[in-house]
Description:
Layout: E1 19-21, E2 27-29, H1 35-42, E3 51-55, H2 62-73, E4 76-79, H3 86-94, E5 96-100, H4 109-121, E6 125-130, H5 142-150, E7 153-155, H6 161-174, H7 181-190, H8 195-212, H9 218-227
Parallel strand pairs: 3-6, 3-7, 4-5, 5-6
Antiparallel strand pairs: 1-2
Helix pairs in contact: 1-2, 6-7, 6-8, 7-9, 8-9
Amino acid sequence: MIAPEPKAVPEQLVLNLSHRPALALEDFLVGASNEAAVALVDGWPNWTARAAIVVGPTGSGKSHLTNVWRLKSGAGSLVASALTEEAVAEMERTGAMAIEDLDRGIADERVFFHLLNLTKEKEYALLATSRTAPGDLSVALPDLRSRLRALPMVRIDPPGDDVLKAVLVKLFTDRQLTPEPHVINHLALHMERSFEAALQLVESCDQLALSRQRSVTRTIAAEALERLHAPSAAVGKD
């Protein structure tokens, strides 16, 4: 009796991508699109300027990097839309402050301007984040507007292939899914190049696979792309 041939083991997608500790439960994926922002955080406390701003799209890792910096520096943290006088006392206590989401509005512009002044007067530190560049923010206070435009800025760009594929693999792994490499490559090739789109696509693939009680195939990936109106999505074959 001839023994059946063993089933082929699906090839593994190997990504030449560095990882760094995120000082949390997960790793932060580092690629060309975000290496400048990572270098800024890694350079603490040897900053030449005592304040800086990280600009990047939704879901690009701004908050994750801010958390890394907070753990290193002992900084307090607030969203700009909740900024009050209490932030000054917090900065005096910790010597550092993270102010997130400037593009969603600064509740008290005079307080923010005061915080920036403290970074110069007392060599405190401030890290801000925004989806919009400082020059494009809606700021009424002229002095603050000028100061923001002078801040050193690092940008997180839309992810390149290395980061995008790694993010897809990680998001699928978080859901205990292991699509084959050609499925990951198909998604990365045809999807919108953003972290937010990656989240939506993986969720859609998961729902489709569950509903059909099958693994995430290229057909399912293509349908998920089509549902999300991603460019150049075309139904492929398994």
